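Journal club side-thread
Mid-discussion, someone asked how the predicted structure for our own chain would compare to the paper's figures. Pasting it here so we can look after the session.
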Amino acid sequence: MEERIVISLVIPVYGVEKYIEQFAHSIFRQACPSVQFIFVNDGTKDNSIAVLENLIDSQYSSLRDRIVIVNKENGGLPAARKTGLEYAAGEYIYHVDPDDWLSEGSFKAILEKIKQTEADIIFFNYVKEYENRSSIKKECPYEVSQKDKYIRNMYNHRAFGTLCNKCVRRSLYDGIFHPKYSYAEDCYLSVQLVARAESLAYLDKDIYHYRKNNPHSITRQGRRRRKEEYALNFLDLYEKYKGAVSTEGTPSAIFDDVLIQAGWYSILYGLDLYARFPYLASEIRKARIRSGSDVILPMQLLVKLYSL
């Protein structure tokens, strides 16, 4: 009997010709029948897909029945991830990037944790890989009763808002909102997914290796542009959820932070968000000043005064 697919890896491909072979080896060498690989060619202009196809043909042809390569016009990272979900057969989704790589034994460890806990989200550690050093990033073992704290810490960079350290039950993505902009798109999704989760399980293993020396990475965008996309993505999320009758299953824990941070970024970087979002000043006036925000307390007070 054919083994069911438990995990679908969704892998957007754009401009990673230099790295994709190392990445592909790291996932294919530990492949097991319950893992599916979905590569979304986001209109890449280099030879990334050709390198991948040649590697599959020469060394991993036995995995062809579980490898999907989807070709689409370039639409950016959020659209590529969303496209990949349409082809996922697994009970869980794991979003990864092909300029990075996975530790040996990653699938086995994640699958064992899924079997043990049946949690909606399995989350784990990752490793930042610099040119001459590595830095392990260990997550805190949040419980489902701490969802609001986890969500708020992700938004304020005190927990990892990345998708690369989370394997998520597929059903949590049903009807979820997807971001308009690429920067912080993973946190935009992560806060919604955690808000919807009924169970969390921490796997204390260093699963994912995040390459920090890729010059084409989204994190290499200019600082002002990054802050603008961060604010725009989360103001969009605020607008999507602010009218919800119940806060259950929504990322409402970050709403005060989203508003005040948008005001602060508008002042600091000249983003003119007050004019672009006419409601912003009045909503900031109602927002709570809270510790634990990326915007320190004196600056929160300044934003409140400016919004008067």
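Post-session note: The mean pLDDT is 95.
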